[in-house]
Specification:
The protein is mostly beta strands. The protein is 8% helix and 30% strand. The protein has a seven-stranded mixed sheet.
Length: 156
């Protein structure tokens, strides 16, 4: 049986299934990727040698350059794809098991923000460690799609 990976956006309007081996996983620091992800970099994995199927909905696309377009959920805004002439890459964070996809290389390092390499040196706290925020967070109910496929979303 071949590898199978699933994932989708945070609201569940767009879901995907990848059948076959994932390609190289990377992070890209270029400014276009920073803006597309609203983050310090874009974590992506190539699916060019696998079969990508949109199992629910499909991404809306933005032509971010003359060579590439970016796919995202039109409902919740989750970044999903980087699509270029050499193939499609999916956002690692959109997979149901992102912990299984470790980046192996960094691209666009000329755009790397100067503090990114030192983030691991910052103080670390668990989510509920802040006594002022803990009461709010204890009662927090997530409306995000779970990290697995469901028959019906949102639940009835």
């Amino acid at each position: 049986m071949s590898e199978v990976h699933t994932g989708g956006c945070q609201c569940g309007a767009v879901r995907f299934r990848v059948e076959g081996p994932l390609g190289d996983a990377s992070v890209c620091h270029c400014r276009m990727c920073q803006k597309a992800f609203g983050g310090f970099y874009a974590p992506l994995v190539s699916v060019r040698d696998a079969k990508l199927v949109w199992t629910r909905g499909a991404p809306k696309r933005f032509q971010s350059s003359n060579a590439a377009q970016r796919g995202f959920c039109a409902d919740c805004g989750t970044p999903l794809t980087y699509e270029a002439p050499d193939g499609v890459a999916l956002a690692i964070g959109a997979f149901d098991k992102p912990q299984e996809i470790a980046p192996k290389i960094q691209w666009g390092v000329e755009g790397k923000l100067p503090y990114v390499d030192h983030i691991h040196e910052l103080p670390q706290e668990h989510t509920l460690s802040d006594p002022e925020a803990a009461p709010f967070l204890v009662d927090l109910v997530s409306y995000q799609h779970p990290d697995h496929d469901t028959e019906q979303w949102p639940p009835a």
